[in-house]
């Protein structure tokens, strides 16, 4: 596998993690993943060579948000890139119990590997244990199982790293502007979710290294409506603002609407997740939005590729080890006007 091939396979970037109820990002109008979200069958990649025919079972919640839609579409497209893969999708239902029931039926069909993004990692942990005990490797995608025995591979984004990336971007920007005591706002996602808490902790920890802290924090619900409402409240509470981090680009649509309505432009804003719309806005550079930190649904493509290798008893071409690793955490990358053109193909 070439360096560029491996980088694309492992490329990740930034919306919902362990225990999330809702996905969190804006979809583009097309339901088709970009070519960069999946890896085709390049002849230069030795892992692409056809191996043992395998059946990959797959389950993810219904596409009520763009990020979840991209997860499923990417998984399907990646499986279709391999002549030796049969893709069998089972419905996740409306909650963890319904998903578990559907997956229990899948176990009876004995697929070679199961890739799933659970409604809730903790509630689906028992299924992971059951499948592994039945000899079916499980690839746990994004929302973590708490029990390491419940999965063969866990692949997820870095929620803490999102906060760190956002904090460093804002910290460096404030230092560059010689703002000694910046007023910094934060609009989080759903506060009851561990992923939101991780993002906020990473943000606070990074800001602390510059001697900065958050002046006002509001929690929205990963929707444009709640983003707009909480942004209105935050802007009213802070008549002067230097920087704002909004955790999610979907709710960011509402945040930006509130900013426009309030006729505020004295600050910079950083988004979260890396939606196509946000990247286009950053490239255009006509609003307060200057950057976003990624959490890419390309992780679903990687999960299918790695699940295939696990089922075939193969390792990753660039690694000395003979097996696929146990856990992969994808880095959160920072998209700015300078690199937006490069990252646009990964927008969703």
What does this protein structure show overall?
- The protein has 348 residues and is an alpha/beta fold.
- It has two domains: 3-157 and 297-331, Rossmann fold; 159-294, Response regulator (Rossmann fold), CATH 3.40.50.
- The protein contains eleven helices and twelve strands.
- It has helices at 3-10, 66-80, 96-108, 121-133, 159-176, 194-208, 224-237, 249-261, 276-284, 299-312, 340-343, and strands at residues 54-59, 85-89, 113-116, 138-141, 153-157, 184-188, 214-219, 243-246, 268-273, 289-294, 327-330, 334-336.
- A six-stranded parallel beta sheet has the order 2-1-3-4-5-11, sandwiched between helices. The protein has a six-stranded mixed beta sheet with strand order 7-6-8-9-10-12, sandwiched between helices.
- α4 (121-133) links the parallel β3 and β4.
- α5 runs parallel beside α6 (194-208).
- It starts with a helix and ends in a 5-residue tail after the last helix.
- Mean pLDDT is 88; it is low at 1-31.
- Residues 1-23 form the signal peptide.
- It is found in: Cell envelope.
